[in-house]
Each structure stands twice: as structure tokens, then as C-alpha cells.
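Please annotate the following for my students:
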Amino acid sequence: MFLKGVNVRMKNKKAKKSIIESIADTLELPASTFYSLSHIEILSNKEIYVEGYKGMLEYDQNTMRLLCDNLIIKITGDGLYIKCYTPDGVVISGQIISVEFSKP
């Protein structure tokens, strides 16, 4: 009986899909298309692309911190530099040692 109750709760949570998620699924698009989410791509330990950032909080050759909508991305490494900078995204190159996420 306990397991049956758990299954029922799980079904109810799955059934409560938002309209946006349903549209994204129907159109076969990622949910980030409709939400204000950051998109991050990492190429080995040499390059990182962050789309959807709001600004640069810290910048030097060893640490970069980017402000996004609902998080701060901290990139640490050696010889870090901004390879490309646009209003929509930033490409950071160098030897990336770590990527950390925190709340603003």
C-alpha cells in the first residue's frame, strides 16, 4: 500500500507539466528557449562559451566570474582571456581548471 501511494504521487507530479514545457516538448525545442536560462558549452579544458550572461563580476588571468539570471559562474584557470564578447555570449579561453556555480 505504501508503494502504491508513492506511485500515485509520482504520477501526479509527472502530470503537472507546465504549459511551457508542453509547448517545448511538442515543438521539440529545449526548455531554455522559453525560460531565461544560461547556455554553457565547454570544449575540453581550453574554452568555455556562456550564452545568457548579464555581466562580468571579476576578470583576471586566473579567475572570471559571470553574472547570469539566476546564478554566478566562476571559472578558474591559468592564462584565461576573453576570446569573443557579444551582448549575447562570451567565449573564455585558456587552461580551465574548474567551473563553479553559485546563487547571486
In short: The first helix runs from residue 2 to 15. The chain has two domains: 1-35, 36-104. Helices lie at 2-15, 19-27.
